[in-house]
Amino acid sequence: MASDPPAQADPADSAIDSVSVLSEDSRRRMFAFIRRARRAVTRDEAAASVGISRKLAAFHLDKLVDAGLLRARYETPGGTRKVGRQPKMYEPTDAQITVNIPDRRHELLADLLLDAVLTERAGENAAQAAMRAAQERGRQVGEAARHETRPGRLGPERGLTTCERLLDQYGYEPVREAPTRLRLRNCPFHPLAARAPDLVCGMNHAFLSGYLGGLEVNGVRAVLAPEPGECCVRLGTGEAEAAEGETPGGR
Predict the structure, then answer these.
(1) Is there a contact between 202 and 127 (Cβ–Cβ < 8 Å)?
(2) pLDDT for 136-169, tens place per residue?
(3) pTM: predicted TM-score of the whole model, two decimal places
(4) CB neighbours of 4 closer than 8 A, spacing ≥ 6?
(5) Cβ atoms 197, 248 nearer than 8 A
(6) Is the N-terminal amide bond of 5 cis, ω within 30° of 0?
(7) Is 224 in a helix, a strand, or coil?
(8) Is 81 a residue whose pLDDT tops 70?
(9) Residues with Cβ within 8 Å of residue 65, at least 6 apart in sequence
(10) What's the pLDDT score for residue 160?
(11) Which of 14, 51, 91, 187 has the fewest Cβ atoms surrounding its Cβ within 10 A?
(12) Could you report the per-residue pLDDT of 18-34, keeping only the tens digit for each?
């Protein structure tokens, strides 16, 4: 029997953890100093930038490394080799921290629209290209999740459990309304969905439909069932879901 997929770190939790590390004043000021330096700096330089001891600076710098905001290596400043142990140098990573409550994924929407523009086919209009790009990306995400977790055959209830865990990472805030129905309480694309509901909700529906297909969840479908303040899509099975319709125009 296939085991349930392991729990994965929530990117939003990781971002909040990183921000909390920067709540300490000396730590935040050293981080800003290192980012502005445009080079790796020593503990002594970091300590001097905020007026604290080298030992205390080392403690704060290692906290920043643990949070993924800095990386450290041993290197002689200026590249000149000297006798003795090389000092520990610190430089910023490429990590970008974004904290939104509730979660927003505007970068995903922008990425899908860029894919649509770059791959638009003959005979497609812009909206059709966007729906296709969204469905293809959703399928890729579902296939990657299936390959990673190897869940075996997924019927409706177990399939929705798998979806619940994975969609939480995308900021949908899934809630199990019934054994065979999953409601998505947050719209990751708000407020853009309110500006262009036919386009954005249609892309969202296409993305989630592709996701279900790539994950190979049997007997579950994504349907448009908009509720104020929530995602426009519900995942479920049965005649009630089929009756909702599958296009923005059918709402």
Answers:
(1) yes
(2) 999 999 999 999 989 999 999 999 999 988 888 8
(3) 0.63
(4) 151, 161, 162
(5) yes
(6) no
(7) strand
(8) no
(9) 71, 72, 90
(10) 94
(11) 51
(12) 677 888 888 888 998 99
